[in-house]
Amino acid sequence: MTKPKHSIFSMPFAKVYPLYVQKAERKNRSKEEVDQLIRWLTGYDQIGLQRQIERQIDFETFFDQAPCLHPNSHLIKGVVCGVRIEEIADPLMKKIRLLDKLIDELAKGKTMEKILRQ
Fold first, then answer.
1. Is residue 23 included in any domain, yes or no?
2. Burial of 106 (0-12, 13-18, 19+ CB in 10 A)
3. Record's Pfam families (predicted)?
4. Residue 4 located in a structural domain
5. Is a pLDDT exceeding 80 seen at residue 114?
6. In the predicted model, is pLDDT for residue 5 greater than 80?
7. pLDDT tens-digit map of 11-58
8. For the whole model, what pTM was predicted?
């Protein structure tokens, strides 16, 4: 018997994207920085990212169609929503939580160099 998919997997990425931007903007960060983080993690260019948002695709498709996960994404560690990223077994959930962690770090005022693991 297979476990049911988590509800966020089928949620449109475009529905959560404005929440990422709002969280960043509340802390005096910008939509451009949010886009930069998403592009860094997923390999989308700006046009590709915008196209995925406009197409209202779900999180699963968003990450399935992502050009490539950044090779340094394994350096993103810590806790998101009470769960340690390194202990997440489901590959899709891990990618979603990696993105959440990047947005959290942006909102907490970290420099882009530190967030992008440079």
1. yes
2. buried
3. DUF2200
4. no
5. yes
6. no
7. 999 999 999 999 999 999 999 999 999 999 999 999 999 999 999 999
8. 0.92
99-104 contacts, C-beta under 8 A, 24 or more apart? 99/20, 99/37, 99/38, 99/41, 101/76, 102/37, 102/40, 102/41, 102/76, 103/20, 103/23, 103/24, 103/34, 103/37, 104/80
Q: List residues bridging with 83 in a β-sheet.
A: 80
On whether residue 27 sits in a domain, the answer given is: yes
Say which residue the tokens 């990212």 belong to.
49
Q: Which two tokens stand for residue 91?
A: 């590959």
Q: What type of residue is 7?
A: S
Domain that holds residue 107: 10-112
State the pLDDT at residue 81.
Answer: 84
CB 72 within 8 A of CB 102: no
